[in-house]
Specification:
single chain, mainly alpha
Length: 53
């Protein structure tokens, strides 16, 4: 039971960071380097949300 609660909290945290990173990615207008960094940062969060290992 407690493991499921921890797993849900873990996925909610991943979702939160994914949403914030996508928001920053959309708002970034000046630097292409930052866009690449945002995209690289998103890869592990999206993989976790899709439950890839």
């Amino acid at each position: 039971m407690i493991a499921k609660i921890i797993m849900i909290i873990y996925y909610l945290i991943c979702l939160f960071f994914t949403i914030i990173t996508i928001k920053n990615l959309i708002e970034e207008k000046t630097s292409k380097d930052k866009v690449v960094l945002y995209l690289i940062t998103l890869i592990p969060f999206i993989a976790r949300l899709l439950r890839f290992k």
